[in-house]
Amino acid sequence: MRKGPATRGIGPDEPLGFVIASVGNAAALAFETALAAVDLHPRHFAVLRGLRGGAEQTQQQLAASLGIPASRLVGLLQLLIERGLVQRREAPHDARVKLVKLSPSGLTELRGLLQLAGESEQRLIRGLTEQEQAELRRLLGVVYDNVALERGSGPARVW
Predict the structure, then answer these.
(1) Is residue 59 part of a domain?
(2) Domain count, the chain
């Protein structure tokens, strides 16, 4: 087991859920700080990532894929629309349905944000070998699958 700043305060008897939550919180705060430089929040990043395929989708579909209520998505979209990163229009078949997609400048912004995320990730994985990184991803995937979905419910929030 490694010693030093990465393990400070995390003993072998700490509840694993607490450790995971603490690490997740620290990683989230680091990413939030990085995104603050471009006046965005990780939730905006999640929305842009959700639209990265380029296909137009309904706000309901996007909200479901992100695991958030559609009403919360509306507020997140507003800033992205104002900045010209996302386009929204009424569906031709039903004016009550709103369709959204990433704009060309939104795609450019997302590429920059992915670069920023990569830089943030480098800090997160510093000191881990490629094999350890792969194993960590695998193990976190197992833990996520164990807790993210409840029977009969939709996907967990992506942030």
Answers:
(1) yes
(2) 1
Query: Any idea what the CATH number is for the domain that residue 75 is in?
Result: 1.10.10.10
Pull the structure tokens for residue 135.
């194993």
User: Tokens 């894929």 — which residue?
Assistant: 65
pLDDT in tens, 62-88: 999 998 898 999 999 999 999 999 999
Task: Return left, alpha or beta for 88; rule: phi > 0 is left, psi -120 to 50 is alpha, else beta.
Answer: beta
Model confidence at 147: pLDDT above 90 = no
Cβ-Cβ contacts under 8 Å for 157 (sequence gap 6 or more): 66, 67, 68
Instruction: Let me know if residue 107 belongs to a domain.
Output: yes
Instruction: Tell whether 2 is covered by a domain.
Output: no
The 3-class SS string of 56-85 reads CEEHHHHHHHHCCCHHHHHHHHHHHHHCCC
Whether 140 maps to a domain, the answer reads no
What residues have CB less than 8 Å from 153, skipping those under 6 apart? none
Tell me which amino acid residue 100 is.
V
